[in-house]
Amino acid sequence: NLQEFLDSAEDKFSRMGPLGSDIDAVKRQIAQLASFKQEVDPHMVKVEALNRQAQELTERTSSEQAAAIKAPLTEVNSRWSALLRGMVERQQQLERALLRLGQLQHALQELLTWIENTSATLDTLKPVAGDPQILEVELAKLKVLVNDIAAHQASVDTLNDAGAQIVQQGTDEAGETAEKLATLNRKWRELQQKARDRQTELEDALREAQSFNAEIGDLLSWLSEVDSVITASKPVGGLPETASEQLERFMEVYNEIEANRPKVEAVLQQGQEYLKKQDRPNPTSQLHHNLKNLKSRWDNVTARASDKKIKLEIALKEATEFHDALQAFVDWLTSAEKTLTSAKPVSRVMETLLTQIEEHKSFQKEVATHRETMLHLDKKGTHLKYFSQKQDVILIKNLLVSVQHRWERVVSKAAERTRALDHGFKEAKEYSDMWNNLMNWLNDTEQQLDKLNAEATVNDPEKIKQ
């Protein structure tokens, strides 16, 4: 809790007491302040993070809520600034106390040591590629150092003034003092330049990371929109036209996904390169989370898109096959109806009738073959009705009813034709049998008469009697 820390730090700082009157006391107080500073400085990161979070919250809330957020934060910032200002003032007071006690060399050495330590700390602040959160923390750490460097400007000026007086006086320590002052000023300029360079590096890296993560954010938003289009549950088209139209519309989305594939893969690849550059990769970092989220969403969307594409292609294939088969069956029905309508009346001439019977048997086989086709069409149409759009279902249902009615009529008329041919065959056979019997009797009678005529020329009375 930042407020609890401030309560503790303010209390501890207030109990540091007045400046010491001897060298040892001042040195102890300098060490005490340095130790206290090491406790306080790390909290700068928390203060910066708190301000950043508050800024993000106030941008998304009403003015009343924003005011409620800013009020306690303003107090924290004010107390934090006062604490830092008090530490800087005490540092300067202690340095002046050293000078008053004739400890210029010690003060110079203290400042040179601080410069070296600060320079070493600056070296640890390295740009972390692609991760805004880590870079913001690094910049917050840098801000602590930059503020500390700025606060030490007065110390550098004071030591330069005091050292210049000793050099002008030409005392024994003038040469050593001049040399140390030259070293101090050189290292001071180098430290300031290093701080500026590090700030430029970190800010450039932050801008690049923010741009990269914004690109990830844009891709995630686009993937959400695409996913909502893909997952929108709408029945497939049951007609070739509607199924084809659905597939064409979806292919626009599918092609958009494929067009963005190189971009997504490039971002994922760039993200992996950023992760490889990190000295200590953190699985919980914002960059790692964003890349994992993008990869997961991309894989999910592309898998869904492929599944839907296959589903719509199958729907188009099934609708086309059904309607092609239906049209072929309708064409056959039309032909069958013409065959039945144009069939000649049942003949009673046996030879002609037998030809008609053979022709009708062939037609009946054709009808029997198409019975399976009708059953398959009905089954396929029923399947399409379950999964198709409402308007398509109505049309499919009407088509099936019409075809079923025509089919039943063809079957019925074919059966009637069969019965008529059977009846005709029966009558023709009866007539044929009677005619054959009569002809056989006539032939036998003629033969008997011929025989009698031949025998009439014989003069034998007995044969004549017979």
TrEMBL record:
GO CC annotation terms, alphabetical: cytoplasm; hemidesmosome; intermediate filament; membrane
Keyword set includes Coiled coil: yes
Residues annotated as transmembrane: none
Entry annotated with the keyword DNA-binding: no
GO molecular function, one term: structural molecule activity
Keyword vocabulary terms for this entry: Coiled coil
InterPro entries: Plakin (IPR043197), Spectrin/alpha-actinin (IPR018159), Spectrin_repeat (IPR002017)
A GO biological-process term: cytoplasmic microtubule organization
CDD domains the UniProt entry points to: SPEC
SUPFAM superfamilies: Spectrin repeat
Coiled coil feature spans: 188-215
Record's protein name: Uncharacterized protein
